Amino acid sequence: MDMILIVVLDAVITGAILWMVSKVTAVHLNFLHTVIAAGAASLVSLIPSFGWLLSIIVLFYLLKQFSDADIWPDIILLVLVSQLILFAVGTALGGMTVSVS
Description:
transmembrane; membrane; mainly alpha
């Protein structure tokens, strides 16, 4: 159950950031398309050993299919900027602790 929640949260958060970055770049994507692409990549990344590589391929393939943008520089820039934002948010939230009393 925890794994399903993590995949869903990853898909929604990554999809939202991809969608926001697509508004800044020249790539035209729907929110639903970005969530689908991020969710599929998140699911594929669960495959042991080479899942991370397949997830990158799936993400780029689906973003290319959902938009008519070129892989270079549009989609690569979109993914790089969104991953930098995700890294920054993850780093900022990494120092937070949650206590339940």
